Amino acid sequence: MKSTLAALVGLVAFTACEDDRDSNPVLNTSGDVTFVLNAPEFAGVDVALGATESVPLTWSQPVLTTDNAPLGAAGTYGFMYEVQLSKDGNFTKTFADALAEVTDEEGNYTGTPTGHDYTVLPTTYNECKADLNPDELNTALNEVNVWAEGTELTATDAYLRVVAIWAKADGTTQVLATSNVQKVSLIPSKWIDITETPAAESYLWMPGNGNGWNHGVAPILVSSDGEIYEGYAYMDGQFKFTDDADWNHGQLNNGSFSSWSDNISMEENNDANITFVGDAGMYYIVVNMADMSITATPVTWSIIGGFNNWGGDEFMTYDTANHCLSVTVTFDTDTEWKFRRDSDWAINFGGSLDALEQDGANFSATAGTHTIQLFIERPAQDGLHATID
């Protein structure tokens, strides 16, 4: 997609959120915190979501601590911003709540959601700016307006606000501050049937050298649409894909794909296995069934926390015996910590060790030497979970 806002994006001024990992901020939970969502540069312009790469927003940094110390990334202090969209400027009932009212115990939609006036965009942000995804905005417009099929999609008013949220250690969240509301005009890119029950997840197993060709411990890629399968896998030598946890169903081998990343070889061999030729380690795997492509991108996982002033990473290595990532670390004092990928906060896990959550609350640990294990290869069967001893 080409952006009709390209000339505007470079003009946007914003107040950057600073990181202060050396401070020990105390949250202001008095309820009187305010901050300002800036008037968008595209205000007064009809933004065509189908011809736009991103929709920029900026806002001022709220003073959320009693000593004015700025809060850093969500992964550091459990803090994040979410963007909400309303059809009329009222924010009284969410689309999610309305949808829950017409969803049965099996997850099927039994009717059309009603009575709602706003929805929450799925992507959260760690800074005082956002490049909103046009597909997310298009979905949001469909959710709040519930258009009938065949409705002419023209410029539509929408009202945006930003909410500052604290993810607490017990897994709950607390709204710390809500911005003012800004009106925008968006042209939807397509109609979406929001009452169509989502397709059930489907899976691909990855038996291979890295797991002893054992389906019981093999990585599992997950797809929500039956087209794009994604997941993490320890890669070392040859492997295949199967569409069930045995060899009696469909397989994808070296004759199945049209394109692949440079660290994968499709040279012929007697068993038609796919050969991974990169360095052994943890990789992010994407299989696209639409164009029959496969990519394996190397990733690192680490822990970070108060034990090093949130200023570095203790990298994890793969434990082939237990099929997990592992690190042994000594904490001098009681501390908080989290997992993150590629030394960055874009992908980080917190919340409960039994059910890891993106941008979840920090974990707590006592002083001493601990071995921490991260299990991320089999979310469909085992969930994303971790242990600490």
Largest sheet: 6 strands, mixed
- How many separate structural domains? 3
Low-pLDDT segments, ≥5 res: 1-23, 72-77
Shape: globular
Query: In percent terms, what proportion of residues is strand?
Result: 35-45%
Q: Could you say which structural class the secondary elements and strand pairing correspond to?
A: mainly beta
Count of alpha/pi helices: 5
Radius of gyration: 23 Å
What is the arithmetic mean of pLDDT?
Answer: 86
Helix content: under 10%
The separation of the N and C termini measures 48 Å
Query: How many β-strand stretches?
Result: 27
Describe the structure concisely for a colleague.
With 389 residues, the protein is mainly β. The protein is built from five helices and 27 strands.
